Predict the 3D structure of the following.
Amino acid sequence: MRNAYISTLYDLAKADKRILALVADNGAIVYDQFCRDFPEQFLNFGISEANMISVAAGLASCGKIPFAYTISNFITMRPFEQVRNDVCLQRMNVKLVGIGAGFIYSNLGPTHHSVEDIALMRSLPEMIIFSPADPLEARKATFAAAGHFGPVYIRLSAGGTPDIYTEDYDFRVGCAVTLRKGRDVSIVATGGIIYEVLKAVEKLEDLGVSVRLINMHTIKPIDKETILRAAFETKAILTVEEHTIYGGLGSAVSEVVLEEAKIPICFKRLGLKGVFPSGYGSYNEMKEINGLSKEDIIRESKTLIEDKKSLK
Amino acid sequence: MKAKPIDLEKKAEELRKVVFKTICLSGGGHIAGSLSIIEILEVLYNGILRISPKEPMASERDRFILSKGHAGVSLYAILADCGFFPKEELDRFGKAGSILGGHPDMHKVPGIEASTGSLGHGFCFGTGIALAGKLDKKDFRVFVLLGDGECQEGSIWETAMFAPQHKLDNLVAIIDYNKIQALDRLDKIVSLEPLAAKWTAFGWEVKEVDGHNVTQLQEVLGCVPFVKGKPSLIIAHTIKGKGISFMENVAIWHYRMPNHEELKIACKDLNLEDLQDEP
């Protein structure tokens, strides 16, 4: 996903001199080609995220389109007030790009696990949030961010994220993608974790369960229509996110269901439940330790389908 | 055209009255910190800044950013005086439906370049504008007025390192060094000293002036950048609450409003007709 983002930014910068790549001592060699070919469009701020965001806002006030990139905690959380006051309040055309969302930086520990970023960015007026599931979608989200005037947060997993999409498709801002049609239960997921969800869905299908899988690549504005259709047609929704269940995707989906569906459905949010990420190990081990493995998704889906039987 | 110092002093006196009246009649604001920057604004807006109220968004204009946004009333007063909006708007300061609030809003007030209020932001934002000017090879300048207490924010020092790195000689920072923050003197809380040496060490060219002396301010602001290829810093030594006897250099006046008796004294000090203390 990281390489897809940077190569897309390269293409954008080539076509439009207003596009600037801003980094905070992060990105290393993946920006090499960019730096070589567009030195005037690349700025390394060193380790000073607050300054990077405010300067980005100032640059945007003069017509530049800065893409500010660093580890997702450090682009959303550390300079949160700069994002709020200088970017959103002043309605500046600044893009925030956070790399390593969720548990991707597995053994680096909880300081590097980005599990509140969606909640933070969702709380800000003007902010649009893209959370792509694979490299192709990261590329499309980057183009969409450049084409949208105003603040955008792109939440990326790291390099080496497996492909979800096998062919090109029409990425539309705020329109979720239904990856599997199904009727027993709907799973709404976002970002790199979708690869894990897909493995769970395949297993469930082997067991004869019909799963609807929705990829919510735009978390804000959220696709109400797709959520409501899932609520009416499957009566059971499981949300899956590499993030706290408070204020993230699950919260966003539940708000739509509770306020607008006005029917009884079974609902469950899978994610971190009021705890910091725990454990060290590989990315896969982190998902297991923190309740986001294929098995967890299968178990929760089955429970929801059982619960559904008691709905009137 | 450069205004005569004697005229500017007179204008500053008038502006001081307008600021005091505007805050007192609205019932709230930062009087003392607004009064310490009057001469700086007078000089900037009368002969230094290349701006026009007829074309407030001209791309080649100089920019002024009040990073210590709580002194917004002084900025409103000078902008109204320059014709960016009608002076009558000042009478509605802080009231429902007004464009003028306790902190400046760039989307509401003509002539305001950045919405400031939270300290440590306007300076970095202004640095971004200066950087854009360099990238686009434009010759506008960016002037940012900082509070001294504001210099305790970490983001100030992030930009203090960044601007010299990028040779932003189109950036001019002015510190309103009145030496008092909300609760006490800076040197009793977190001292900035040695202030000039710190900025010099960071790569800025520094000059110090009496921030109430219009001749000195004209001189120093008229010769920026001090050194080609370096950002300029002006340490303006000022008096918080300047012009009001009991307010000068007294920390409690950071936000406090005068009572009936104090109001009378202040009006006398400013040579202003009595104000009613209830708006």
About this structure: DSSP finds twelve helices and twelve strands in chain A.
